[in-house]
Amino acid sequence: MIRATADQEYYELTSPTLLPKASGFLWNEKMMIHMNCRGYAVAQFMQPEPAKYSHAPNLEAKTFMQPEQPYYAHHPGRFVYVKDEESGEIFSAPYEPVRVPADDYTFAVGKSDILWTVKCKGIQIEMRLTLPKAEAMELWAVKVKNLSGERRKLSIYPYFTVGYMSWMNQSGEYHEELQGIVCSSITPYQKYQEYDKIKDFNDKTFLLADRKPDAWEVNQEAFEGEGGITSPSAIGQEELAKGDALYETPAAVLQYRVDLNPGAEEAYRFLFGAANNEGQIAQIRSDYFLNKNASGEDGFVLAGREYDQYIREGRGCIEIATPDPDLDNFVNHWLPRQMYYHGQTNRLSTDPQTRNFLQDHMGMSYIKPQLAREAFLIALSQQKSNGAMPDGIILHKDAELKYINQVPHTDHCVWLPICLSTYLDETNDYSLLEEKVPYADQAEAETVYEHIHKAMQWLAGDRDERGLNYINQGDWCDPMNMVGYKGKGVSGWLTIATAYAFQVWADICDNSGRPEAAQDYRAAAEETNEAVNRYLWDGDWYARGITDDNVVFGISKDREGRIFINPQGWSLLSGAADEEKKEKLLRAVTEQLETPYGVEKLAPSYTSMREDVGRVTQKHPGSAENGAVYNHAAAFYIYGLYAVGERDNAYRLLRKMLPGPSLDDIEQRGQLPIFIPNYYRGAYRQFPRTAGRSSHLFNTGTVPWVYRCLIDGLFGVQGTKEGIRVSPQLPGHWNEAAVTREFRGATLHVDIRRDAAASQTEVYAEGELLPDGVLRDVQPGKTYRVQVKLPGGA
Ligand code: CEZ
Q1: Which atom of ligand 1 is found nearest the CA of 478?
Q2: In what order do the strands lie in the sheet with 723-726?
Q3: pTM for this entry
């Protein structure tokens, strides 16, 4: 039903109905496409804000990418209708819109392409989607093969939805000279000042074919007729009517009539995307279809290869072999890809939330540290001279702070040392701290060190008399917007996170020759932890915060929202929790928050508005921040578990981030294990029917934290100032594992085994014992053989 291919290049699904929302995604420098197994697609390109060339059938609300998006009959999609001209029977590939069950169906998601092979009524349709590296365009290859013993007369109809382009102006027609369909529109606007922006938009949608079609239709209503999308009337005719759309909803449909002998095959290629004008489209046609290089390859072939190369650059820095092959596949092939996507696209936003921008580039530190470095400098150049970080980072001259970035949050400074520490662990590039950067409100540049010092001072100052950090209208949790809007409420999590940030910063100060500052920050962390323990410990776990009206919440007295995961995990990181508190809170988390799908963000989920907490309580119980298994928060917790050596607890929860391995689990989650979604539904104890269901949203800060869990925790191959510390934390039921670690230009082959003779972890490099487990003086270009003996062997 689902399986990885032997070469691990693809994940395959063999039914369009088992996991109807299973999907894959591709992206390039301009766009992203989220392709579902049944043929539905959501594609967006940047100009500079996200825009569409294949629209919904009605006016779409413009917003950021949402979880659990529904699909419906006229959802944008890419389909091929197939008609047997003799019997009149039709079906469609990959599955929608006709929904005829295939004899054989495979949806294969790769790193740089997505393909389907569908066999139905003796005909095989293959569809393959890839992208070019830098243009807002899809490259489609479609093959039709006669599998039956008889000669077949067929019509095939590639159907690319265009949808409701604009209420001001929309049309479409076939262009003989372009051999394709061009649909035109004007992005609707009302203020004359906007004219300047929209006049250069790529408001045209084109479909170009490498082979001349026999007929076409550009008018969606005319195509569907009374038969509707599942059985379009136009397909009943011998030939499509060659119609156009004049302020009518366009569609891009072509017809090819083919006569296929048994075993014969025909191949077609299409380009579908956005453009500004016909001249540009003509250029695209000659670049991709007409001009060939010396080896006879055209732009279409070259673009596919170049794109594959582009995606492959996003390799991670560990390659693992463990007793868990599904984990290996995910970590070696898919996890770095998802991280790379975040670092490269900033989630298709021109003003990423500051914490997202920093964490996404924390992930980039493992792939292209130079880009992470640049990102940190950009972020710091938008800091205020009082140390405050803005709510979003502006990445384009025309961008402005939108949506959630207009709501004041207080946590952004916390992420600076935390994300930077990963970059420093990977690169040892402490010169970054001496780089000079201006402020948003001050041209005079100061060093990165000064900037972060000011950010830490800002956190230390933005507190009440108890020493607890104000929350204002949100912290990490965006919708926790009414705890402190009156100016008094505090965030328990943020206070704990501040203590941790102080410690991480203290280490960085030490490593960059600033022992006095380090001492001050350690003392500040300790004081902060004391305040946390004084005001927020509830007896068995930490409270989430204290409202404007001085009500402590996230405590045993609460009927809903009794316990939140974030303060628990971060207290393990900050050191607020001593041994006794640790034992208690671990138990509370297991008992109240753990589910078969991971740990929930809070429980019980709120079922009605709590006006002193905010709109998080209005989200559907078990969805998103209201008690889902919110993987970002779960990853923090797991990272905390590794920090205190809770290897079995940590691994169990880490594994729950991936669908599978049982088919039941995969069915319940509804997703292929090729990305970690931002959440799985929670409220397991309230709504078991929906618990576990994937949000299918692959935008999430989870992934760099999972990578850190692997590098710093599970496999223990974390960079340090002197070199690399080898200290694996394999779960008790693993007897061995191997890791190849690319590190500062060197390659380490780390072989980890349990050994009955070892009473504690022993690390050998090239046969020599490393007393503290740290391999020093790592030379670029060199390969090291590292052996780890773990106690506990049979
Ligand atoms: O956005 C994420 C943010 O991108 O939610 C996280 C937050 O830390 C990330 O920075 C936790 O709140 O506003 C809302 O209610 C949304 O639910 C966002 O909070 C959420 C979206 O799921 C992102 O698509």
Answers
A1: 12
A2: 717-719, 723-726, 774-776
A3: 0.98
